[in-house]
């Protein structure tokens, strides 16, 4: 199964959740392990649209079952932004430090009680309904979503995770997302929840592969 992400830390989280679900018969491989193919722009209006864009283009290019996550932080005081623009909020894709600095600046006058935010993940799984070439195969699609509520801190805390984790205080936690262990983050995170909801579909896919 192709895991269509260029974000190494996200990829590691996806692999971790798959590993702990103990699905035998699926070998997740990253985009770096397949020949380059033209990737479609992530220009959807929603996380779900973007997850489907990534998963479908991976499936189309390789014929492999393809899993993709699209995710981001929706901040109440910013009317849900950065949202689907999270990876490039400060202008340069994947510049976590600049994204975090910009978010902090935008919220500098926002009091604690209005600093609510939530991470969202949409995970899409796309695969062929039967063993046939991608051009003639029927496309099977499963999508699951996860949400992780919390608030935006006033300064970064912690070194783990990635992206906005140092600025995110999960609901009910006294540690930022970047201060949680990997297992703690996976148990509660948007991505952990979304991906675990796909486990039955992934198991089915694995069993189908093993029957061949
Ligand atoms: O599209 P791919 O190649 O998978 O990698 P990406 O980093 O571009 O991923 P997205 O398009 O889904 O954008 C997600 C951004 O949202 C933020 N984000 C998502 N999940 C996060 C998490 O668990 N912790 C912190 N920030 C997160 C972070 O800035 C990500 O770069
Ligand atoms: Mg992206």
Automatic annotation (TrEMBL):
It is an enzyme of class 3 (hydrolase). It comes from Dietzia natronolimnaea. Its EC number is 3.6.1.66. This is dITP/XTP pyrophosphatase. The active site is at 70 (proton acceptor). It catalyses: ITP + H2O = IMP + diphosphate + H(+); dITP + H2O = dIMP + diphosphate + H(+); XTP + H2O = XMP + diphosphate + H(+). InterPro entries: dITP/XTP_pyrophosphatase, ITPase-like_fam, RdgB/HAM1. Its cofactor is Mg(2+). Mg(2+) binds at residue 70. Substrate binds at residues 5-10, 71, 162-165, 185, 190-191. Binds 1 Mg(2+) ion per subunit. It comes from the Bacteria. Pfam families: Ham1p_like (PF01725). GO terms for biological process: nucleotide metabolic process; purine nucleoside triphosphate catabolic process. Keywords: Hydrolase, Magnesium, Metal-binding, Nucleotide metabolism, Nucleotide-binding. GO terms for cellular component: cytosol.
């Amino acid at each position: 199964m192709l895991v269509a992400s260029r974000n190494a830390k996200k990829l590691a989280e996806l692999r971790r959740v798959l590993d702990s679900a103990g699905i035998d018969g699926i070998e997740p491989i990253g985009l770096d392990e397949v020949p380059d193919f033209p990737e479609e722009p992530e220009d959807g209006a929603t996380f779900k649209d973007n997850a489907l864009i990534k998963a479908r283009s991976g499936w189309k290019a390789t014929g492999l079952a393809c899993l993709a996550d699209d995710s981001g932080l929706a901040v109440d005081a910013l009317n849900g932004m950065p949202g689907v623009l999270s990876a490039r909020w400060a202008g340069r894709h994947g510049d976590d430090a600049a994204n975090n600095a910009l978010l902090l600046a935008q919220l500098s006058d926002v009091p604690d009680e209005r600093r609510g935010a939530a991470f969202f993940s949409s995970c899409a799984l796309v695969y062929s309904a039967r063993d046939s070439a991608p051009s003639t195969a029927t496309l099977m699609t499963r999508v699951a979503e996860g949400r992780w509520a919390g608030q935006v801190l006033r300064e970064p805390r912690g070194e783990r995770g990635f992206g906005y984790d140092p600025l995110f205080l999960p609901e009910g936690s006294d540690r930022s997302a970047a201060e949680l262990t990997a297992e703690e983050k996976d148990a509660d995170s948007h991505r952990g929840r979304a991906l675990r909801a796909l486990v039955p579909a992934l198991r089915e896919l694995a069993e189908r592969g093993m029957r061949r």
